[in-house]
Amino acid sequence: MAQRLTLAALLAALMTVTARAEPIPVVASFSILADFARSVGGDRIAVTALVGPGGDSHVYTPTPADARTVAAARLVIVNGLGFEGWLPRLVKAAGGKATVVEAARGIAPRRAADDDHDHDHDHDHGAIDPHAWQSVANAKTYVVNIRDALIAIDTAGADTYRANATAYLAQLDALDGAVREAIAALPATRRKVISSHDAFGYFTARYGITFIAPQGLSTDAEPSARAVGAIIRQIKRQKIPAVFLENMTDPRLAHRIAAESGARIGGTLYADSLTAENGPAPTYIAMVRHNIKALTDALSE
Ligand SMILES: [Zn+2]
Predict the structure, then answer these.
(1) CA angle 148–163–207, rounded 5-degree value
(2) What's the sign of the alpha-carbon dihedral 184, 187, 192, 194?
(3) Which residues contact 32 (CB under 8 A, 6 or more apart)?
(4) Ligand 1 centroid vs 280 CA: distance in angstroms?
(5) CA 80 to CA 140: how far, in whole Å?
(6) Ligand 1 mean position to 129 CA, how many Å?
(7) Which of the listed residues 10, 141, 146, 152 has the most CB atoms within 10 Å of its CB?
(8) Which long-range contacts (CB under 8 A, 24 or more apart) does 156-162 make?
(9) CB 101 within 8 A of CB 33
(10) Distance 130 CA to ligand 1 centre (A)
């Protein structure tokens, strides 16, 4: 009897050790969500990003390995707002059992400006803009949704997730303030830039720099010659100071627009993806700080 109890106690101890050593498998659709999840989950979870650093989530094609990763995950974190059009098929291919949480849930969706510059192609009039993370205020909603989703699948970790999220949300509050201050210091007449695709609408709504982009909300189609011509004329007319490259889109278009308009290349903005660990934007906070420095360097004076 005593021997059996000892054995049972030993087994229980072993199971506890195993439980602690095995982090919970969590999948994030792209690198920015993976960073939020790691910030909240710490070492209780092991996060895999399907679209890794430098990848373009708009046009991603999932692999059979992705289906296996999703099938093994306890939680799948996605942006929502129509960003990951390829995701429903992937979840189905994985067996359809994954718990999926939309990190942008609760954020008021922004719609694309119904602009008049070009009606030759079928760009998405009034389409929902998925890039809500570009406002730090929205990033806080992402973090709260991820925290609650982690608590729902792992109640034993609730205190850890709450504490980590609270600390990270305080960092995001400080970041939001830093962005506001940096933009407020820029001359009002220079708060206008060209980016490649329309990824900064939520940033504009919160912080007040206007972004004009030859490509629409997605990267899946080339802009028409007329749209590019209209932007070049707009740069000249409004003396827009800088054209920015993006880390996950083809730089040739931005270079051409800069060359033909006389605007300078302002550097690279990180729109829909982080960099690898050794790059300038390995985390969301580093990404926002990098973007703000690039914008203020190009627009101050
Ligand atoms: Zn995008």
Answers:
(1) 75
(2) negative
(3) 133, 272, 273, 274, 284, 287
(4) 19
(5) 15
(6) 9
(7) 146
(8) 157/41, 157/44, 160/42, 160/44, 161/40, 161/41, 161/44
(9) no
(10) 7
Distance CA(212)–CA(226), nearest Å, equals: 15
Give the distance (Å) from ligand 1 centre to CA of residue 109: 15
Give the environment of ion ligand 1: residues with CB less than 5 A. 199, 272
Q: What's the CA gap between 79 and 273, in Å, rounded?
A: 13
Name the one residue in this structure whose structure tokens are 């940096």. 182
Instruction: Calculate how far, in angstroms, residue 126's C-alpha sits from the geometric centre of ligand 1.
Output: 16
Q: How far apart are CA 91 and CA 78, in angstroms?
A: 11
> What is d(CA 200, CA 296) in angstroms, rounded to the nearest whole number?
15
**Residue 254, number of CB atoms within 10 A of its CB:** 23
Instruction: Calculate how far, in angstroms, residue 136's C-alpha sits from the geometric centre of ligand 1.
Output: 16
pTM of the model: 0.89
- For residue 149, the SS3 value is helix
Ligand 1 center to 22 CA (angstroms):
34
Pairing of strands 100-102, 75-78: parallel
**What is the C-alpha separation between 173 and 178, in angstroms, rounded?**
9
**One pLDDT digit (tens) per residue for the chain, 301 residues:** 455 657 667 666 666 555 556 999 999 999 999 999 999 999 999 999 999 998 999 999 999 999 999 999 999 999 999 999 999 999 999 998 889 999 999 999 999 765 544 444 444 556 999 999 999 999 999 999 999 999 999 999 999 999 999 999 999 999 999 999 999 999 999 999 999 899 999 999 999 999 999 888 888 888 889 989 999 999 999 999 999 998 877 889 899 999 999 999 999 999 999 999 999 999 999 999 999 999 999 998 7
